[in-house]
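Researcher: We're teaching a course module on how sequence relates to structure. For the next exercise, students receive a sequence and then see the predicted structure as tokens, so they can try to spot secondary structure elements on their own. Here is the exercise chain.
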Amino acid sequence: MTVSRNALRKWEKVRVYALGLPGATEEHPWGETVAKVNKKVFVFLGVGDGGHPLGVTVKLKDETAHAHALACPGAAPAGYGLGASGWVGVPLEPRGAPSAELLCDWVEESYRTIAPKRLAAELDAR
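Model: And here is the predicted structure for the students to work with:
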């Protein structure tokens, strides 16, 4: 499976943005790239081996953002029961996929949902 340069650029922007948030760390459980805060995942960045389409999975509590994310081409509630608690998987490849800026907004919302209040406050102070 070949990955478009545009999707790869978006993925890298989102990854860099996520890891720049206060207290964020990168880990690779199950061979997948994730960003965590306080030992909890706030964004799944997928498997970077080229065997799967590039995408991100974020937790969106805001109903408008959640509905917008689900309306993206190929987007779906996350598997393993995570969709029931607001997690949405958004592919980066399809025509009409969200911009890196919008994806970063969603990553920030997901981060704020998971991060301790003091780290979210640190982000507000920036």
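Model: If you want an answer key for the exercise: Residues 30 and 47 are 9 Å apart (CA to CA). Residues 5-119 form a domain with the Aspartate Aminotransferase, domain 1 fold (CATH 3.90.1150.30).
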